[in-house]
Amino acid sequence: MDFKHAFETNRETWNKKVAIHAASDFYNLEGFKTGETSLKDYEIQALGDVSGKSLLHLQCHFGQDTLSWSRKGAQCTGLDISEEAIKLAKKLNHELGQDAKFVCCNVLDASAYIIEQFDIVFTSYGTIGWLPDLDPWGQLIFERLKPGGTFYIVEFHPIAWMFDYTKTPPCLSYGYQQKEAIYEEYKGTYADTNAELSSKEYGWNHGLGEVISSLTNAGFHIDFLKEHHASPYNIFPGLVETVAGMFELPDRKYPLIFEVKATKR
């Protein structure tokens, strides 16, 4: 397929989402500005103390997580395909008095825009589904890490993306390791389902085997792969809230989240 057209379609949609997301309760931008972190327990526990470490955040949207790591003492660089997202990230960085850097580019082109290597490369929640092939992704992460550096991803589980959520009830429509692009048009966005926005998106579903193989093929040692029933985000239909304030399926039939931590040898 024409990947350039797919990336351009996604970029245009994400540019339109930025203002809606920034105004939404989902992103709670005002709370963030007054000191609340956007980071969740999974990533905080996995990466621990980042003070003094350099960190590259892939597909950072408008930079809340990048700036949350910066507040924890990391020297951060965030990148995203959306010009509007990067524009807002830079504005927030200045407003909050942080020293993060932000770069606008397709994540697969990162090494053409960023030449330094980092102690940590980080990405989270709704990122790899925008990429048709994970081997170049694994390679660029390896290139951008220092020897002994850490890569960490926390992401929605590929089983959760097998369903078409534009239908009620959601329909099992897509393959676990589907190579063909998934194209969707729908109104609104996950942060505001009532927003006056027509979302047009191309996505791809990647099984855990593909995720792990893309990293090991690049030369990584896998420290762990974990799967979790509980999601910090209530973005799928029918989830129930746990006593810990997380969200999971009532029958817990499949996990909603996975984590991978890897080391550059």
CATH class value: Alpha Beta
Number of domains in the coordinates?
1
Kindly state the percentage of residues in helix.
25-40%
- Please state how the strands of the largest beta sheet are arranged side by side: 3-2-1-4-5-13-10
Helix- and strand-based class? alpha/beta
* Coarse morphology: globular
Number of helices: 8
Q: At CATH's second level, what is the architecture?
A: 3-Layer(aba) Sandwich
H-E string? HHHEHEHEHEHEEEEEHEEEE
CATH domain fold name: Rossmann fold
Please count the beta strands (DSSP E, at least 2 residues each).
13
Mean pLDDT: 97
> Can you tell me the residue ranges where pLDDT is under 50 for at least 5 consecutive residues?
none
Biggest pleated sheet: 7 strands, mixed
**Rg over alpha carbons:** 18 Å
Q: What would CATH call the homologous superfamily?
A: Vaccinia Virus protein VP39
Proportion in β-strands: 25-35%
What is the CA-CA span between the terminal residues?
35 Å
Summarize the structure in words.
With 265 residues, the chain is α/β, with parallel strands linked by helices. The protein has a single domain, classed as 3-Layer(aba) Sandwich (Rossmann fold). 30% of the residues lie in helices and 26% in strands. The chain is built from eight helices and 13 strands. The protein has helices at residues 3-22, 29-33, 41-47, 64-71, 83-95, 110-113, 134-144, 208-218, and strands spanning 54-57, 75-80, 101-104, 118-124, 145-156, 163-164, 171-172, 182-187, 198-203, 220-228, 240-241, 247-248, 257-264. The chain has a seven-stranded mixed beta sheet with strand order 3-2-1-4-5-13-10, sandwiched between helices. Helix 1 (3-22) packs parallel to helix 5 and helix 7 crosses helix 8 (208-218). It is globular, with a radius of gyration of 18 Å. The chain starts with a helix and ends with a strand. The relative contact order is 0.14. The model has no long low-confidence stretch (mean pLDDT 97). One of its GO terms (biological process) is methylation.
